[in-house]
Amino acid sequence: DAGVIQSPRHEVTEMGQEVTLRCKPISGHDYLFWYRQTMMRGLELLIYFNNNVPIDDSGMPEDRFSAKMPNASFSTLKIQPSEPRDSAVYFCASSRTGGEVLFGPGTRLTVL
Amino acid sequence: GQQLNQSPQSMFIQEGEDVSMNCTSSSIFNTWLWYKQEPGEGPVLLIALYKAGELTSNGRLTAQFGITRKDSFLNISASIPSDVGIYFCAGQPMMNRDDKIIFGKGTRLHILP
């Protein structure tokens, strides 16, 4: 069974550009999570969905960040406009129950 | 809000030594999870615990759900070079109305040659 799939694995962009990160959760998982990881702040939950509905977006840093889940097999995290301080590794994760969260390989974002 | 205190922050050990790390909280948890993250990869689930007092092994790894429901520990026996990485505890607080789990800040394990 395929795990969580994320694309791209690496993204380098210039400040002010729009960035879109993509995720395909594990089939049958009802929960989808977006995390951000930096050395300074560790692993932070940005937003999570249950059955495609956003449940808690309190971790989204600011209005420049948005996330959608149009169907059970796809989600996007968009940053517009991007800033250098957004540089981090972004993980998508999914779970069946909300408990055992399984992570994707991450997207390493660098904003110049 | 609820927090997980994970310790130690980092460990430097010799190959072959046993390792012990733990997570504590002032809140009661329903579930404890232990993850390992290697460079350039996402965290991988090692062990999941669901009942107070539960002791579960996965190869050389053993984890326990504390009987107070406020702590958990992870032991690694006879460490080998591939054990290097960051180990995260995570838990699902009992008082959470939603299904979020929260993560500790990680224990970075280094193995000296």
Q: How far is the first residue's CA from the last residue's CA of chain B?
A: 41 Å
- Spatial shape of chain B: globular
| N to C succession of SSEs of chain A | EEEEEEEEEEE
Oligomer: heterodimer
What is the number of E strands of chain B? 11
Percent of sequence in beta strands of chain B? over 45%
- CA-based gyration radius of chain B: 14 Å
The low-confidence runs of chain B, each spanning 5 or more residues with pLDDT under 50, are: none
Largest interface, and how many residues on either side?
A-B, 21 and 22 residues
Report the major sheet of chain A: 7 strands, mixed
What structural category characterises the helix and strand content of chain A?
mainly beta
- N-C termini distance of chain A: 37 Å
Q: What's the total count of β strands of chain A? A: 11
Which strand-content bin applies to the residues of chain A? Answer: over 45%
Major sheet of chain B, described briefly?
A: 6 strands, mixed
Low-confidence stretches of chain A: none
Order of helices and strands of chain B: EEEEEEEEEEE
Task: Give me the number of helical elements of chain B.
Answer: 0
Number of helices of chain A: 0
**DSSP helix fraction of chain A:** under 10%
Radius of gyration of chain A (CA) equals 13 Å
Short note summarizing the structure:
The complex is a heterodimer of chains A (112) and B (113). By secondary structure, chain A is an all-beta fold.
Structure description:
The complex is a heterodimer of chains A (112) and B (113). By secondary structure, chain A is mainly β. Helix content of chain A is 0%, strand content 55%. Chain A contains no helices and 11 strands. In chain A, strand 9 (88-95) and strand 10 (102-103) form a beta hairpin. In chain A, 37% of the residues are buried. Chain B has 113 residues and is mainly β. Chain B has strands spanning 5-7, 10-14, 19-24, 29-37, 44-49, 55-58, 61-65, 71-76, 85-93, 102-103, 107-112. Chain B has no helices and 11 strands. The termini of chain B are far apart. In chain B, strand 7 and strand 8 form a beta hairpin. Classes of the chains: A mainly beta (112), B mainly beta (113).
